[in-house]
Design brief:
Number of helices of chain B: 13
Bound molecules: adenosine-5'-triphosphate, magnesium ion
Largest interface: A-B, 29 and 18 residues
Radius of gyration of chain A: 25 Å
Distance between the termini of chain B: 33 Å
CATH topology of the largest domain in chain A: Rossmann fold
CATH superfamily of the largest domain in chain A: P-loop containing nucleotide triphosphate hydrolases
Number of strands of chain B: 2
CATH class of the largest domain in chain B: Mainly Alpha
Distance between the termini of chain A: 34 Å
Oligomer: heterodimer
Helix content of chain A: 10-25%
CATH architecture of the largest domain in chain A: 3-Layer(aba) Sandwich
Chain lengths: ~350, ~300
């Protein structure tokens, strides 16, 4: 049975449709990641799950129980807020123990539990500090510790936007993943960084403008994006998108755009159409011994050790990225042949963004 | 910057710029202060026909005399007592309204200006209003008549015990917006995440207030108390308008006492000593109160 079911959740703020019919089922013990650009409604969704915001429509069910009428304090949820929100007048210790102190647990129990948590999160040395003096990463650990103390049945994390640098984010996520393995509870993790989502999640939901565009295991979304937005948003570096025209031929179609002539065998339709071709950087082949789809000029080159990241300019100033094996070493400004891997090509409707092929 | 100015050998610009303000402060604050110190140490009464610089030096005599004066001591105690009641009631009201307004209620925009009207009304208008409200045929007596179902015609202002009630009520009405505003600004500044974090950890509304909101407001509450207390200790207008300190001296406050002895009986030296005593006591009290806030900050 799914632990958490969101059924057709909608929320409007004035003219903004913050959430528009979100459906989601999360299994017990799952690590679900929600990604989406700023303003797509991620925080609003978490607030509805936690009970701080009432949805205009739809319902939240946990273990088969309707949650809509339940106040946050009765939901048994742990939440780390986007702006962290530590109790700034208390010490780290008092922040962590808050959840037990208001339940009037014995002092011995509280101390024991606080030290346990502090050890796990490696913040024992900070216990008697005022939270005002903590660094961003430390503050986030304390915030996690604070939610752990009441043993909630599931956890919501809203990743801070600006105040953690990339390294710290990765470190934090590793920490949270470890926690997930240890606790075996349900986690919902909001992030802005799809690279993290890819590596961490058992399931991902991609949101945009209050809608859930696509849900599923990250690999599946990566290999099978339903539309242009998801294709470009999900994956690092982003999928290359090239605008062009598709022309019918006897056996399939021919894509023309930015100087490329790409045969798309599997796609056949009756007349010309404006489309966008999508291809992952790893599926762009660069070299001289190939039958080319077109040419590009090397713009810059990043040698990353296990792979090379090549920035190319096609005709009409179109820039694309290719990720190749380290042996491929073209010169800067060199004009090279380009080939797109045939069975790894996507075609999208130029205006609507829907997927046409495959 | 200041180096260069000095080298020119002229009067530094910064001194010239500050001069007008300093002159005003000199005449409005420094000279009067020195004069009052002098007054309190000599025996000066304008009606004696002796200039104040020629008056007899009596050192601390005035201070001893006024401290022995039962009327003065009673006025001090009464003022403190009025202030404490006002503060208590105003804080309760202010906090209540502020808490209600931080919640989700309709019509906030109309309520804000309505709620702070009293503080913008001149004291003389408030005094006259309360005089009408508590007059023999005023609404207060009439409402009590209806409740008791007999005719009730108390003359509030000349009642030895109850004359203080209209004074206290008018003070409360006049000043509750101040505490309300200060507490409200404190409450809305508590971050939503902190409140939500407490809620999701299981805090009840009570626990939220006692463990999160009040501790966070401690500093601002102390400051509000000090500001309001300073105002309360000076209460004069309504006393003057409603009871004239009467009946007898039953509603006399410090300010009214000093006014009466200073300007009616011309005992300038005597009240100067009284003023210094009050100032000294207030400074002591307030600095203790504020120190607790400052220590907290560190
Ligand atoms: N209380 C509110 N009142 C009015 N509009 C709101 C409110 N909360 C959210 N919104 C709007 O709803 C939309 C979704 O906001 P939300 O905070 O959920 O986005 P988000 O996905 O969390 O963005 P970010 O990644 O920047 O945190 C935004 O357009 C926002 O302006
Ligand atoms: Mg957000």
């Amino acid at each position: 049975m799914p632990a958490l079911v969101l059924n057709n959740i909608s929320k409007r703020y004035g003219d903004v449709q913050a959430l528009d019919g979100i459906n989601l089922q999360i299994q017990d013990g799952e690590f679900c990641v929600i990604v989406g650009p700023s303003g797509s409604g991620k925080t609003t969704l978490l607030n509805i799950i936690a009970g701080f915001t009432k949805p205009d429509d739809g319902e939240v069910t946990v273990d088969g129980k309707p949650y809509n009428q339940l106040s946050p304090r009765d939901r048994n949820i742990g939440m780390v807020f986007q702006d962290i929100g530590l109790f700034s007048h208390l010490t780290v210790r008092k922040n962590i123990s808050f959840g037990l102190e208001i339940k009037k647990s014995s002092k011995k129990d509280i101390d024991k539990r606080v030290e346990e948590i502090a050890d796990r999160l490696k913040i024992r040395k900070l216990l008697d500090k005022k939270v005002r003096l903590l660094s961003g990463g430390e503050a986030q650990r304390v915030a996690i510790g604070r939610t752990l103390i009441t043993n909630p049945s599931f956890f919501l994390f809203d990743e801070p936007l600006g105040n953690l640098d990339a390294n710290l984010r990765v470190e934090m996520l590793t920490e949270i993943k470890r926690l997930h393995l240890h606790l075996k509870k349900t986690f919902i993790y909001v992030t802005h960084d799809q690279e993290q989502a890819l590596s961490a999640a058992s399931r991902v939901m991609i949101m945009k403008d209050g809608k859930a565009l696509q849900k599923g295991p990250p690999r599946e979304i990566y290999n099978n994006p339903i539309g242009k937005f998801v294709a470009e948003f999900f994956g690092v570096p982003s999928m290359n998108l090239i605008d062009g025209t598709i022309i019918p031929e006897e056996d399939g179609s021919l894509f023309q755009g930015a100087g490329l002539n790409v045969k798309v065998k599997g796609y056949s339709q009756s007349k010309k159409a404006e489309v966008t071709l999508g291809v992952r950087p790893t599926d762009v082949v660069v070299g001289n011994q190939i039958t080319e789809d077109g040419f590009g000029t090397i713009n810059s080159l990043e040698l990353l050790g296990d792979k090379n990241q090549i920035y190319l300019t096609l005709e009409q100033e179109k820039s694309i990225i290719a990720v190749t094996s380290p042996e491929v070493r073209p010169e800067l400004e060199e004009r090279v042949k380009i080939k797109l891997k045939e069975n790894r090509i996507f075609l999208f409707d130029r205006d609507q963004g829907g997927r046409l092929y495959p | 910057m200041s180096e260069r100015i000095k080298r020119k050998g002229k009067i530094p610009v910064n001194i010239i710029m500050l001069l007008p303000t300093n002159i005003i402060i000199l005449f409005l604050i420094i000279i009067p202060t020195i004069l009052v110190i002098w007054f309190s140490l000599v025996n000066f009464q304008p009606t004696f026909g002796i200039n104040f610089w020629q008056s007899k030096f009596v050192f601390l005599d005035n201070y001893f005399k006024i401290l022995m004066d039962d009327e003065f001591v009673k006025a001090v105690i009464r003022t403190v007592y009025i202030s404490l009641i006002c503060l208590g009631v105003e804080f309760t009201i202010g906090l209540l309204i502020a808490s209600i307004l931080t919640g989700n209620i309709h019509g906030k925009k109309i309520l804000y200006p309505l709620l702070i009207i009293p503080i913008m009304i001149p004291p003389i208008v408030i005094g006259n209003n309360f005089w009408l409200i508590f007059s023999a045929n005023g609404p207060v007596n009439q409402i009590i008549s209806i409740i008791l179902n007999t005719e009730f015609k108390a003359s509030w202002f000349s009642h030895p015990k109850y004359a203080i009630i209209p004074i206290i009520l008018s003070e409360i009405w006049h000043w509750y917006p101040l505490t309300f505003l200060i507490l409200f600004s404190g409450l809305v500044n508590i971050s939503t995440s902190e409140i939500r974090a407490a809620k999701i950890l299981g805090a009840t509304e009570w626990q939220l207030s006692w463990r999160i909101k009040f501790p966070k407001l401690k500093g601002i509450i102390t400051i509000a108390l000090v500001i309001r207390m300073m105002e309360a200790l000076k209460v004069f207008d309504v006393v003057h308008l409603l009871t004239h300190g009467g009946p007898g001296t039953r509603t006399q406050t410090i300010s009214f006492y000093l006014f009466k002895y200073g300007f009616k009986y011309s005992r300038i030296s005597y009240v100067s000593a009284g003023a210094w005593i009050i100032l000294f006591i207030s400074l002591l009290g307030f600095s203790l109160a504020l120190r607790s806030v400052l220590v907290e900050r560190k």
